[in-house]
């Protein structure tokens, strides 16, 4: 079952003693979570992604707009009638109940025709537990579990009602780095196994990129871009998305386009056919640089960091907006220089131009 | 399907509205139960003696308020004296308590000595001892020292409070160790460090403790009743009991209520001024309850 | 190090002296008093050592009356005040506007002088030759006859005492419970709502277990406090509680020490120790029962 959001808007009354008016948390948000896909809702904290999630699961009512589940309008339905399972950031496992009781809890709420027998509840709970491989933990209390195990219990509890949609709020943020890698694969595996339509919220772009089928990037309550992770990375719609995705982050320069040529600090570095004249932000991915003794981009070499397969060249450029810029190049490239400079040629696919004021993408040549 | 949901939703929101109304109603009922005695005492204190006694059915308001009862309260019985006694007792006891407890709390929080944990454990276990158990001997002690009907006798046993030592110690321990080490490197004495660093940093807790103790002193009844039988040393609680039993004559209820108002006003004022501090302090371990 | 140690003891000296003189010494002394038979306060002499004081107290009808009153008071006020406080706190935490105001109002009894406000309650409940009093006026609205709650039948007096006691202890309980309710992570409620848990079930299956440690704490402190009831009774019925038949155990202790029957510290000590033993026993039973229940 797919999820569609149509021009979803949420405004809160402003908080604080002297506050007046309203704060818009989400503005005209429209996107789709296709059936059976794992979609990452990505953005910096405070961008409205958690509010969006709460509206989808029914904990908050939108100010305007619609939410459709499989084409059916659920905008004003209470959470329990939507058939959603939700995993909270801190898992919200009831501390006084055992793992099994936690998993059974949602089933005990079912009423009327849906009411289950004790044995049936237990069977379903065991099934869910088996799915996330926590069968041996059923009699423990949540505080006796590791973070990763708690996470799995929370997922089992969300899945036990066989929801049509699974929502995860920052599912990995409470785990340490090592567990995070392991757990995100786990989530991905469970999602593939169950084929359940899943939306998860995160501020960590690496996390979102690595497991999502699609990502949706938000900022200040507005949709910035959506698409497959690689596609969004390769084709950012604006400066924000370009900066937000990718580690190490993209290098941003103050550039100028004159007569179809890109100038950085007055230096002609790249032909950009089709781009209109004027000042631009120029973003170059770290992998867009190739060391080339005849290359047009001349940088002051600060240091070289060896990463093994690659090396990271930290250098300076007069047009760079940050103190240093970073290029990731093949470890075999020769970057030694006599005069403390290093020269690069640019890979046109890894160079993005953005309007100086609107920060929207200016496409050139074959980009598009 | 849609309409079914719609009607379900509407029923739910109607139920929520009803629940909210009932909640406010219930809360308001209790608020009235709490406030009504206060209203009644102020109201009664403003009714004249004659008017009050001619009301066979109590009236909920009065059209001719009078302050005569307040004059009566201060002249017919030594209410002013009671207030003064209570003020003296409360201020001295509280001040002594703060000094003594601060010193002890500092020793527990900052200084190292053998048997510290053992002693603190002993302190905490003493907190369990009900005052009823020790009041008997204290009464005998004070009587034997010939301190009945003196402020010394009233104050001395009321000073120590392990609970406040405990609160202050907790607060002192929040102050980072580095500050103490830095002060030591600069050659600051402990007493100066306590006065110049600890107390200013922990002022909120000290204020809380002070106010709680003031309230406790203002309301103390049992101990003063035991060690004073001379009206000149009565505190307000004993005074009010005296008034009740023989003061204005049992019938002059309005004058009695005027005295009650006079006694209650300082506390209520203190409470309104330091509301959050008092509530926060009280929630950590009540005096009453 | 040694110098430091001396200094520490110096800082502790005032507390130690005061605690020693007025808490530790009396604690030992009260045990001694309680076994000294025939102690004469004036001459400070006694006839012998034994348990006669205890036996005297336990056979004193006034003491038995006091024990009965105290137990009735405890059994009525502790559950009612705790339950009512829970109800009010739950109500308070479910509203936003006016919550601060209600909280402030509810806390007022905490800072009032028990004796002084007790007088107001006396006035409200009393029936005199001049007037039936306000409470009787209200009873009359419902067709109930006038009852003298202050000098009338025992059950009526008990009712007023319980009512006033509850009125006095509510602020602390509401304060603690609203704090406990506020400290429950809202995500638990969100999770429960996503699962369609009914309000009643949320309250009984989630909220109540999560705040149960605080409820246990309140019940225990409530028991201890109610067992030590005294000044509320004095405020309502005057210092001669035995005559009113409304004495409490603590009241008995003080009466024995000083008051109408006064001057018997041995009896007072024995009664105080009996009280302490009762309180301790009930607290322990309480703790055991709740621990077993929490484990289940």
UniProtKB/TrEMBL annotation, chain B:
<feature type="transmembrane region" description="Helical">
    <location>
        <begin position="21"/>
        <end position="42"/>
    </location>
</feature>
<dbReference type="GO" id="GO:0055085">
    <property type="term" value="P:transmembrane transport"/>
</dbReference>
<keyword id="KW-1133">Transmembrane helix</keyword>
<keyword id="KW-0472">Membrane</keyword>
<feature type="transmembrane region" description="Helical">
    <location>
        <begin position="154"/>
        <end position="172"/>
    </location>
</feature>
<dbReference type="Pfam" id="PF00528">
    <property type="entry name" value="BPD_transp_1"/>
</dbReference>
<feature type="domain" description="ABC transmembrane type-1">
    <location>
        <begin position="83"/>
        <end position="274"/>
    </location>
</feature>
<feature type="transmembrane region" description="Helical">
    <location>
        <begin position="118"/>
        <end position="142"/>
    </location>
</feature>
<feature type="transmembrane region" description="Helical">
    <location>
        <begin position="82"/>
        <end position="106"/>
    </location>
</feature>
<keyword id="KW-0812">Transmembrane</keyword>
<dbReference type="GO" id="GO:0005886">
    <property type="term" value="C:plasma membrane"/>
</dbReference>
<dbReference type="InterPro" id="IPR000515">
    <property type="entry name" value="MetI-like"/>
</dbReference>
<comment type="similarity">
    <text>Belongs to the binding-protein-dependent transport system permease family.</text>
</comment>
<feature type="transmembrane region" description="Helical">
    <location>
        <begin position="193"/>
        <end position="215"/>
    </location>
</feature>
<protein>
    <submittedName>
        <fullName>Carbohydrate ABC transporter permease</fullName>
    </submittedName>
</protein>
<feature type="transmembrane region" description="Helical">
    <location>
        <begin position="253"/>
        <end position="274"/>
    </location>
</feature>
<keyword id="KW-0813">Transport</keyword>
<keyword id="KW-1003">Cell membrane</keyword>
<dbReference type="InterPro" id="IPR035906">
    <property type="entry name" value="MetI-like_sf"/>
</dbReference>
